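hiii, so i know i said id send this last week but things got crazy w the move. better late than never?? heres the sequnce for the chain we talked about at the cafe, plus the structure i predicted for it. fair warning i was half asleep when i ran it
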Amino acid sequence: MNAWLRRVPEWAVWAAAALPLSLLVYDTLTGRLGVDPIRDIEHRLGRTALYFLIGSLAITPLRRVFRLNAIHLRRALGLVAFSYAALHLAAWVVFDMGLLWSQMLKDVVKRPYLVFGMTAFVILILLAATSNRYSIRRLGRRWGKLHKLVYAAAILACLHWLWALKLWDAWPLFCAGMILGLLLVRLGFWVARQSKISIKSAS
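okay and structure toks below
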C-alpha cells in the first residue's frame, strides 16, 4: 500500500520546501505583499516553519495508525522547519530590528511572545545539530528522549504565533489542535505500550 511512499527521496521534501520560499521572493519582488511587507515576510516564513514541523510530527502517527511509512523523510522535514525558522528569525533581526541588538532586548522584555519563539528556535537548533548518524550513535537512547523536545518546540511556536496575532484566528487554533492531537496519539500509544509491559511483568 505504501511502497510508493518509501520510494519518495529526501530531496523531494527540499524541492517542495523551495516552493513557498520561491513564491515569497516572487511576491516581494513584484510588490504583491500587503501594506506591511516586512510583517508579511516574517509571518509567512514563520508559518511555513510550523507547517513543516507539524509534518515531521505526523510521521510516527501515520506509520502507527495508517501503516504509512515515511520515516525516512522525517529528518528532512525537521531540517526544513529549522531552516524556515532561521529565516523567520533573520527577517526579524535584519528587517524589523535593523540589527539593533539593544532594541531587540527591549522588544523581548516588552513582548513576551518573543520568548516563546526564541525558546522554540533554540530547541530546533539543538535538534538540527543532532539530526545526524554520528549523534544518534553517540547519544544512544538519549537521542530519542532529546528529540521528543520537538513537541515542546511546536507548542511554543504555536503559542508564539497566537500571541503575536493578539486574536484567536481559526487557522492558528486549527494548527494548535493538530499539534495537540498528534501529541495525544503518541501519548496513547505510549500508554498502551506501558500497559502491555505491565501485563507481561505480572504474568
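btw The chain has ten helices and no strands. thought thatd interest u
miss u guys!!
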